[in-house]
Amino acid sequence: MLLAKRLSAEGFSVRSEIPTQAGRSCDLVAVRGSLVLHLHVKCMDADDDLTQPRSPRIPSAIRSLENVDRRLLIEVEWKNGLSSSALRTTADAMRNFLGRAAVGDECVVRSRSGEIRGRCRVRSPRDTGGVSLTSGITDDHRLAVDRVRRLLRKARDQFLAGGENIIVVFGPKSAKWIFSQALLGTPVERWDEYPRRGERVALGNADDGFWAGAGKSGCASGTLSRIAVWASLDSVRDDSVAWIRSGVTPVVRGACAELFRQVLPTNR
User: Fold this and answer.
1) N or C, which terminus of the chain has less Cβ within 10 Å?
2) Single pTM value for the model
3) What is the pLDDT averaged over residues 215-237?
4) What pLDDT band is residue 54 in, cutting at 50, 70 and 90?
């Protein structure tokens, strides 16, 4: 197991399948000196790689939306068989929409006769770059987020007292955003907060994430979920993110920094 090897490389002694007070089992218990970590390991479904092509290649006219200067992930679809002129007109309408759109907004482009030519929807914000396009407006991402929330709840039911419980979910490289949405909540625009420097609106999360619901209260062992990790199936050290809530000791934070690629504090 990748994680067990990673723990051993950092000087931890590792045991597996340790019984819990609730009659379940903790996947890994890692001990180094006085530091005790309880790790609960889950795997995302291969279908949760939502960057794989699910419809025809995006036409160049629609692809030009990537030049819009906004950090957004956009879902687009268009009617097959449109002329080049109709595609450009459709893209122009979408471009105008993206200039003012908020997370979750959707635009339907119609011809003069009322025929639907295309749609686009703002799925989520992005940390870097400009607009990124994905083809097809479906419920695939919502279903994927729901699946990850179920994994998080299952891991929480395996918590063990006497150490720091860490949930680790392995998944496709492209599915990091699915995990973060399942953990923290759906991206939303916050009008009760000031935006970051260089941003027009403040971005936050809705209260539908694991840490706003099932992970907010103690489990059967009386412990809280305070650390959750997404990791690539290829490499824990080179491609992983640990989200850490308040209350985690500096020693545990330091261990997470050793084990995982990126450590992000959060107020969720």
Assistant:
1) N
2) 0.71
3) 75
4) very low
**Burial of residue 185 (number of CB atoms within 10 Å: 0-12, 13-18, 19+):** buried
- 254-262 CB contacts, 8 Å cutoff, 24+ apart: 255/10, 255/32, 255/35, 255/37, 256/166, 256/227, 256/229, 258/10, 259/6, 259/7, 259/10, 260/229, 260/231, 260/236, 261/237
Cα gap 243→188, rounded to integer Å: 19
Distance from C-alpha of 182 to C-alpha of 185, rounded to nearest angstrom: 6
> Strand locations in 97-237, DSSP E?
106-110, 116-125, 132-135, 164-171, 187-190, 202-205, 227-232
SS3 209: coil
Structure tokens belonging to residue 265: 């504090």
* pLDDT band of 55, cuts 50, 70, 90: very low
The pLDDT tens digits of the residues spanning 79-133 come to 888 999 999 999 999 999 999 998 889 999 999 999 999 999 998 888 777 888 8
268: Cβ contacts below 8 Å, ≥ 6 apart = 183, 184, 185, 205, 209, 211, 212, 243, 245
Residue 133 corresponds to which tokens in the numbers above? 């396009």
CA 28 to chain centre: 24
